[in-house]
Write a structure and sequence with these properties.
alpha+beta; disordered N terminus; about 190 residues
Length: about 190
């Protein structure tokens, strides 16, 4: 435990606490909008954070590399046993490594040259957000849609949560309607 001595007339030090520290709520007292000083010290504990944000970005880079190599075993190797992946594109959340492999294999079969390009990445604590662009050619069955040999480009965003060096959850957001239009799927008109 680290203890920061307050400055005269202020219950907090003038420096900003590092991100990996948090204030022990049992040691602070608040009265209205003012801090009530019980002592001239504020106690701060180190937060358990086994991986840095840079480590989480590196983990995401490894995932993209494995996807682009279509190496499903390597892709799921950094996922926790309890991993859950949800998306509006799926009828239900995908749970576990084997289900993830089956889902990605469906995409790789439909688009054998599928490639993901990372456009932006933001890491904050245990969360990693990636804005990406996927390209591929529709050469296999995709959810009952026969091959059209059309080139597609899809943009999306995936928000992932990392715990203890493994992905535990991901949510993917992408425009499925634009994907279907690029494949030439006739879409009904609104009434």
């Amino acid at each position: 435990m680290k203890i920061f001595r307050s400055t005269l007339g202020s219950p907090f030090p003038t420096t900003i606490f590092p991100k990996h520290l948090y204030i022990d709520p049992a040691r602070l007292y608040i009265f209205g909008a003012d801090w009530v000083r019980r002592a001239d010290y504020v106690q701060v504990k180190a937060r358990k954070s086994p991986m840095s944000e840079a480590d989480n970005v590196r983990l995401m880079d490894e995932a993209f590399s494995a996807m682009n190599a279509h190496d499903l075993d390597r892709y799921v190797s950094n996922q926790d046993d309890s991993y859950v992946w949800d998306s509006d594109a799926f009828p239900a959340p995908v749970r576990g490594r084997e289900a993830v492999k089956q889902t990605l294999q469906m995409y790789f079969t439909a688009f054998p040259d599928l490639h993901f390009e990372r456009r932006q990445i933001i890491a904050s604590g245990d969360s990693v957000v990636v804005r990406w662009e996927a390209t591929g050619t529709h050469k296999g069955d995709f959810n009952g849609i026969p091959p059209t040999n059309k080139r597609i480009t899809s943009r999306g965003c995936t928000v992932s949560e990392v715990k203890n060096g493994r992905f535990v959850k991901a949510s993917t957001y992408m425009d499925q309607l634009a994907l279907l239009r690029q494949m030439g799927v006739p879409l009904g008109k609104a009434a």
